[in-house]
Amino acid sequence: MKIQLILVAALATAVSAFNAPSRRDFVKFAGVATVAAPFMAQAEIAVPEQSKEYAFPTDWGLEFKYEEDAAKVREHMFTATGMAKGSDRMEDFGKNLKKEMVDFVSYYRRFPKIAGKPSFSTLYTSINVLAGHYTSYGYKYPLPEKRRKRLYQEYAEIEKSLKRGR
Predict the structure, then answer these.
(1) CA distance 34 to 107
(2) Contact 130, 77 (CB under 8 A)
């Protein structure tokens, strides 16, 4: 699918290079680019296997420095997403993580400069997904594969945004 979209975009570019540009050609190319862009932006993320092995964190809570807190919450969520059923202290991990996620959102959403950042909005979405899972299924049950894949894609996006300071 992605290759087909890329080929269509390349063909449209090649055709417009040989013809005199007109509004109609521009609209055709813009339409193809608009349709193709969302599919090209979503790179395939490798979803790691669930594991019972992990290091239980000791650094729960906020430091009240956005970049550090966002990276820490993301890292804890990443660990929780990869946990398999029956992991040691899984319920304690889930309870601590949910409290940390709630504290993070309730503190940082009050600041318009932070709440407008792409990293915050994506992290907020991820927090809602994981907190919703905990509310519906409890702390002892791992996330289904489809939800894990979506979360790992969002974690990658958050990491990129934080590296860019956004």
Answers:
(1) 36
(2) yes
Please tell me the distance from the alpha carbon of residue 73 to that of residue 81, in angstroms, as a whole number: 12
Q: Where are the alpha helices (DSSP H) in the chain?
A: 2-18, 23-41, 66-81, 90-108, 112-115, 118-137, 145-163
* Residues shown for the chain: 166
Q: For residues 34 and 23, what is the distance between their CA atoms, to the nearest angstrom? A: 16
Cα separation of 165 and 161, whole Å?
6
Q: What is the mean pLDDT of each run of 10 residues along the chain (166 residues)?
A: 51 51 56 48 72 91 95 96 93 95 96 94 96 94 93 95 92
Lookup: tokens for 71: 């990276």
- Lookup: tokens for 91: 């319920």
Give residue 25's pLDDT. 60
Q: Specify the pTM.
A: 0.72
Can you spell out the DSSP letters for 21-58? Answer: --HHHHHHHHHHHHHHHHHHH------PPPBS--PPPS
